[in-house]
Every structure is written in C-alpha cells, then in structure tokens.
Recover the amino acids of this structure.
C-alpha cells in the first residue's frame, strides 16, 4: 500500500496482476482508483465492493488499446504526481482515460486555471472532482473558504447536490464519519450566482469598502418606471415643440422604449458618470433629444435616491467594486481560498472584472471554466470575449494563470458526435461569428453506439406523434427557443394524449390551485358576480353539475337566471355563518379539509382523459392524474404557507386575502410552481435551450426550427463602447412611426452578425444535449448560402458522414 491521500492510478497491462483485495483497501480508506489495463475488467467487477465503487465512480476502469511497446510497462501514480507524461499521453489516446481532466483535478501549481472546453467534456465533473482532491490533500481546508459561482440558481442547486452525492458515495464506501462532517461543511459552502455572492459579500465586507452598514441590495424596477413617467411629463413642459411630435404615441409605448434603453445600460453595468456622458446620436424626429433628457434625468435621480436610501442595485455594486483598485488585502474579512466559476463565457464585462478583482485581492486560486461556443446570454449583457477580458485583467494584475482545454466528450454516442463535428464545421462557411476548428472538435469517449445520430425530417403532427409513441418512456426533451414556444409545444403534445413536464419559471401565482383558491375567496367576497360564480362552480371546490345546455334552456333576459341556477348546486352558504366566529384563513382551511379539492381535481381530470383519449395507455393516464393531484396539493399548501407568513394566523379578512392574491397573480413572476419528481418518467420534458444548458437527455427533439433569427422588435437598442465613451443606437417602431438614429444605421450590420452568431451558439447547445440521437424539423440538406433560421443550418446525419 502506498501513501496516497486522494487517488491512485494503476496501469497494469495484465489484469491478472491486479489484486482485488488491494483495490478494496484503497477504496475503503477513501482513495479513488483509476485502473487501466489491456483486459476486460468484467470478472474483477463481480466483487460486490468493487462493483459498487465502480458505480459510485470511486473506481474508474478503462480498457486500453493494446500496444506492444507498453506490454511490459506498469505504473502506480499517487495523487496525480506524474513522472512519466508519455504514459499518460498513451493512455489518453488509447482509452477513455482523460489526461486533461486528470491533470486539472490534481493540479498543484499555485496560479489560476482557465479551462475552455466544448460541450459534454466534463467541465462540471472536473470541478467537483477538484474540490474532492483539495479537501483530501489539505487537512485544514474548510469548505466554507471555497466559493463556487454558477450562472443560475438551478445550476447552483444542481452543483450542490452533485457535491453532496459525491461525498455520500465516499461515506457509503468507507463508512468514515469524516465524510458526514464534510457533507455538513459542504452545506455551508457558498454555491450560487454572482448576484447572490455579491449580496453576501456586501454583508461581510461592505463597511470596510466604504458602504454604509445598512446598505442593501434591491431592485428599482418600479421606481424607474415612475421616474420615466415623471421626466416625460417634465420634458413635455420644457421642450413642447419636440414633445409635440410624439404626443399621439401611447405613453406606455414610449415608456417601454426608454425601459429597453435603460436595461441595456444596466446589463453592461455602465456607471452613472458614464451615462452622464452617453451619446444618443441623431434621428430624423429628434427623439435623441427626448431620450437624452429622460434617461439622464432618470438615472441621476435614481442615483440620488439610492444614496439617500443607502441601497444599491447589483450592477452598481459590481461596477463600484471593480473601481476599488487600491484596497489592501489585509482589510478583507471573508476567507476565500478557492474560487470556482462555472459557465464563465456568460459573464458580462463588469462581472468578469469583479471576478479578477476577487482573485487578486483575496489571493485565492481561480478556476474558471466555460465554453465560448455556448455563450448564449448576450441579450443580458454577457460578452463572449469574457475569457479574453479575464486573461487581460489577470495579466495587468501580474497574476499567473494556465490555460487548459478538454476535447473528449463523454455525453454523446460516437455516431452523433461524428456527424455534429462535420455539421459545426460546415456552419463556419456561412456564419461569420461561429468559429470552429480542429481544436473545437468533440472526440467521442463513449464506446457504446447508437446508430440514429442526427435525423432531419418534416416534423408535422403525425411524425411527432409517431416519434413520441416510440420514445415516450425514454429520457426525451423537446427543446425550443422561447417560453411561448414551450407552452405551444405542451399544448400540441398534450392534445396528442401524451404528458409533459414544462420548465417555465415564475408561474406559481397563475397555477390552477392558486386560481381556484382565488375563486373560492371571491365566492364569499363577491357572491353575486355571475361569471365568477360560474367559474367557481366549475372549479374543484364547486359541484360542476351545470351543463351549457341547462344554462341555455334556462336563459331569460329578465332575471339573473344564472345565479338562481347555481344556487341549487351551492353548499357554501353554511360557511358564511362561520365568518363571525373564525378567521378567514381558518374558514378557508376548513373548506379545503372538507372538500379536498386536489382529490376532486384528480377524479375529474382522470375521467376527462379517459373520455378524450379512450385508446390511451390507462396506466399512464392514472399515473399522470396522481402526479397532478400531488402537485395541486403541494402548491395549495405552499399558498397557504405564504398567506400565513404574510398575515399571521388570524388577522386577515377575506377582502385582505383577495387583494393580496389579486396583486400577486397580476405581478409576481418570480415564484415557481412545485413539481413532483418521482414516478413521472412518462412525462416528456419541454424547455427552452437556455433552460437546458448544462443538462443532458437521451433524445432531443427540435420541432420548431423555422423562427427567423432577426426579428424586428418594437425597440432595438445597441450599446457601443467607443474609446471610453458610450454610444447608444436605437431603432424604434411604434406602428405609425418608425425611425432609427445614425448609430443604429452605422452598427446594425455588425449587430446582425452578432445576433446570428448567438442563435447559432444556441443551436450548438441544443444539439450537444443529446446522448443518443437528435430529431430536428428540417429538410435533409442544409441551406448552403444563408442562415436565417435554425432549419437552414440542419441536415440529416447521413448526408454529413458518408
Ligand atoms: N472522465 C469521465 N468519465 C466518464 N464520464 C464522464 C467523465 N467526465 C464527464 N463524464 C460524464 O459526461 C457527461 C458530461 O459531463 P459534464 O456535464 O461535466 O460536462 P460539461 O463539460 O460540464 O458539459 P456542458 O458544457 O455541455 O454542460 C456527464 O454525464 C458526466 O458524468
């Protein structure tokens, strides 16, 4: 046995030389084993402990292609301390072993690491493994001094669960309690978005950096809108002759245009001072003067307000931090030893500056990973040159860094990857902003084959139905461009009798249990509004016994016949007596307990399914009805929890609740619906490509591929940085009035190329999510001349690799 603390790599040409007892010993003492041999390890893996370790990735076995010159060789490498780099090259080229990942995981150098690597090459996996390495090697490393920045909250949750799962695997195999302690520590480790990190950072370091103790980070969305209105009015008084030209335009349209401009400035974190110097160019209607006046006044007043209220928006914080160059590291209190950043390609300019600022000031080791070809957040200010900026900033600060790239792809089947490589290379001929050369090629690491690959076909309803019928029990995702298309596809698929899991954010307050609960409240606050009463009657709280035929036959213009009709079905009256005795929340809770709306819903939903799709799979329909019932209950419980949190147990009246809920339903787009995760493998996932980033599925379907890349919006804004000076280009279309300023005319051409580049990167992300095959709606040959929509860039895999 050797002294390794974290891992042992064994290369033994003959598997007979491997002793299972030795491997067991390594694993049971928490050391990961890489085993490489010429032979099939099947027999060895019959050992139950080794089998389990293999499953849990503590034992990685790779079969190496035979080469006589290595026949006599054997090697034991402890904790990545490599003497013979040639051997690793040989193993890398002749097995699934990945030298790049191995070196990054076990890196000892003190400098920073920048990893640019294609899809599915194990960037996320390597980061988790590196944390394991650091923790095993440095006994005193507290995971709380490791910071992991991810791009979205979902990615953060995903990363934390992967880390915890890894630690649990170690515990399961070793039964060493230290792993339980590490799991607890990992629970405290910061894993989150750059915005939530900035918030946490402010709490600890704010005062030292000159921010007041009560400084808070919040959003100023509503104030911004109010101020825009104020300064439009003021402009109309001060410059009536210009305003006159826009008087007939609805106010909300003008406001929207200004919001679009301010959002762009915000995305790029342009400082207040720089906005003071911003150029708006000129247009034929003189709107540039209007915009200059309103935007500069709004930003100035907002800045004053933030100073008085001692608040910041996140972009202010980041732009102010980046300017604190002279701060000494001794003044900082947070302990950060390692800083990991995932999806680095999607950081914007000020975020990249903040990250290099952190690396320099805290003296921590930065490990930034990403893929320029997957940069898809340009609309939010992300800049695909972020890596370049980071490198320049590190160099200016005399920081040493090493660059790595990874090319072996573990996700997709070889057939698919070979086709995709050819396709991506073809794109470079028609898309200027999508560079793809030999170093970008994805090298298949999987051996298992799936011959389907990339399939282009006309995906009309009949074809889609055929595909879904074939694949619905597999891991399938339908990927589309926008949230609107998610809903369109869910509708289309559910009308075919299949079930979907739609990933759309912020829909909690518009979900069925919330809407029906609102109708229940309205039943008491406005019992005589016929429309609401009828909807309530149809809801899971109502009897739902009144048919349209009955309504029509009872019609009379003289009386409010509908209320009379409904009265015969209504048994809510008795609850009204309880009003005076109990609180509104208690009455509503009693109704829920008695009616059990989730069960009523399940029964009705199931019956509906049976009658709509009598030939459908009964078992699947039953499963779906149960899943929907559970979700109904989970979300209703959550609503009650929110209400109690807002009002306490007793004090709210029905009217208070109605007001609270109607505002939430109209405005809240941040709360997500709860979904069940188990027993729903019959559901087809439908999501946008943005949501699918970082995820993988066996099959990817892309039925909507014909949306044009360039869509003229009501207001298009381009922000141009020109030698420390910002210029704002705009194109405005308000229906009966259209104009563009000179900057827009000047830069629209290059902006168009950038937009196409972004759409093509989206398609790259979508296609590389699949493990086995991709089905796309397209003709079998791509358009060799132009790329106006995704289908122009797609073709059948068979055409690609002959
Ligand atoms: N060395 C390896 N051996 C076997 N499987 C691996 C290895 N590295 C990664 N994988 C697997 O390959 C898949 C892709 O890995 P991962 O998600 O880490 O890649 P990624 O580079 O972050 O991908 P993307 O950028 O496309 O989101 C995962 O299923 C992962 O478990």
């Amino acid at each position: 046995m050797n002294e390794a603390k974290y891992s042992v790599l064994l290369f033994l040409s003959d598997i007979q030389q491997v002793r299972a007892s030795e491997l067991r010993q390594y694993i049971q003492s928490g050391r990961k084993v890489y085993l490489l041999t010429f032979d099939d390890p099947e027999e060895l893996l019959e050992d139950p402990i080794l089998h389990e370790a293999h499953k849990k990735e503590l034992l990685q076995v790779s079969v190496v292609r035979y080469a006589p010159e290595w026949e006599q060789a054997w090697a034991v490498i402890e904790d990545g301390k490599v003497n013979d780099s040639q051997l690793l090259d040989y193993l890398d080229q002749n097995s699934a072993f990945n030298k790049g990942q191995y070196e990054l995981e076990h890196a000892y150098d003190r400098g920073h690491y920048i990893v640019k690597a294609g899809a599915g090459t194990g960037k996320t996996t390597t980061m988790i493994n590196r944390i394991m390495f650091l923790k095993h090697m440095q006994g005193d490393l507290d995971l709380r001094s490791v910071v992991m920045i991810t791009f979205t909250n979902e990615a953060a949750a995903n990363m934390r669960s992967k880390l915890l799962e890894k630690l649990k695997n170690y515990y399961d195999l070793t039964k060493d309690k230290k792993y339980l302690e590490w799991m607890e520590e990992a629970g405290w480790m910061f894993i989150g978005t750059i915005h939530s990190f900035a918030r946490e950072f402010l709490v600890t370091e704010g005062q030292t950096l000159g921010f007041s103790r009560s400084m808070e980070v919040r959003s100023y969305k509503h104030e911004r809108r109010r101020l825009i209105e104020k300064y439009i009015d003021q402009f109309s008084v001060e410059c009536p002759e210009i305003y006159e030209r826009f008087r007939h335009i609805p106010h909300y349209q003008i406001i929207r245009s200004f919001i679009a401009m301010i959002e762009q400035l915000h995305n790029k974190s342009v400082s207040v001072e720089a906005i003071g110097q911003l150029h708006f160019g000129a247009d034929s209607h003189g709107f540039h003067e209007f915009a200059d006046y309103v935007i500069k006044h709004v930003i100035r007043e907002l800045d004053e307000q933030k100073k008085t209220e001692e608040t910041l928006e996140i972009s202010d914080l980041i732009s102010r931090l980046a300017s604190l160059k002279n701060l000494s590291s001794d003044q900082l209190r947070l302990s950060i030893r390692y800083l990991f950043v995932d999806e680095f390609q999607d950081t914007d300019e000020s975020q990249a500056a903040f990250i290099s600022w952190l690396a320099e000031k805290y003296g921590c080791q930065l490990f930034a990973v990403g893929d320029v070809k997957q940069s898809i957040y340009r609309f939010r200010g992300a800049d695909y040159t972020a890596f370049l900026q980071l490198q320049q900033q590190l160099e200016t600060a005399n920081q040493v860094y090493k660059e790595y790239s990874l090319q072996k792809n573990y996700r997709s089947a070889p057939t698919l990857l070979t086709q995709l490589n050819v396709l991506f290379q073809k794109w470079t001929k028609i898309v200027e902003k999508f560079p793809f050369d030999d170093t970008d090629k994805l090298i298949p690491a999987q051996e298992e084959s799936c011959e389907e690959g990339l399939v282009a076909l006309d995906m009309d309803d009949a074809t889609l139905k055929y595909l879904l019928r074939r694949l619905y029990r597999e891991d399938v995702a339908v990927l589309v461009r926008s949230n609107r298309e998610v809903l369109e596809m869910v509708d289309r698929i559910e009308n075919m009798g299949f079930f979907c899991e739609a990933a759309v954010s912020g829909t909690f307050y518009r979900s069925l249990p919330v809407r029906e609960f609102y109708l229940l409240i309205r039943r008491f606050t406005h019992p005589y509004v016929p429309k609401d009463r009828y909807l309530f009657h149809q809801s899971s709280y109502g009897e739902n016994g009144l048919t349209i035929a009955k309504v029509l036959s009872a019609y009379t213009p003289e009386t409010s016949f509908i209320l009379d009709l409904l009265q015969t079905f209504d048994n809510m009256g008795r609850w009204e007596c309880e009003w005076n005795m109990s609180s509104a929340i208690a009455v509503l809770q009693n109704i829920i307990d008695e009616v059990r709306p989730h069960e009523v819903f399940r029964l009705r939903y199931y019956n509906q399914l049976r009658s709509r799709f009598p030939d459908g799979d009964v078992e699947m329909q039953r499963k779906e009805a149960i899943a929907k019932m559970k979700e109904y209950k989970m979300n209703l419980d959550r609503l009650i929890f929110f209400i109690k949190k807002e009002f306490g147990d007793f004090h709210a009246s029905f009217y208070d609740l109605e007001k609270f809920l109607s505002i939430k339903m109209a405005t809240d787009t941040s709360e997500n619906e709860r979904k069940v995760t188990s027993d729903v493998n019959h559901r087809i996932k439908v999501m946008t490509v943005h949501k699918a980033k970082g995820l993988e599925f066996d099959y990817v379907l892309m039925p909507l591929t014909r949306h044009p890349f360039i869509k003229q919006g009501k207001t298009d804004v381009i922000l141009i940085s020109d030698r420390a000076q910002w210029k704002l280009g705009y194109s405005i279309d308000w229906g009966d009035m259209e104009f563009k300023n000179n900057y827009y005319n000047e830069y629209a051409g290059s902006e168009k190329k950038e937009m196409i580049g972004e759409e093509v990167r989206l398609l790259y992300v979508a296609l590389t999510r699949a493990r086995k095959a991709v089905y796309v709606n397209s003709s079998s040959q791509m358009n060799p001349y132009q790329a106006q929509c995704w289908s122009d860039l797609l073709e059948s895999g068979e055409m690609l690799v002959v």
Summary: The radius of gyration is 30 Å. The chain has a mean pLDDT of 88. Residues 98, 101, 117, 119-125, 371, 374, 410-411, 694, 696, 768 surround adenosine-5'-triphosphate (CB under 6 Å). The CA atoms of residues 549 and 779 lie 48 Å apart.
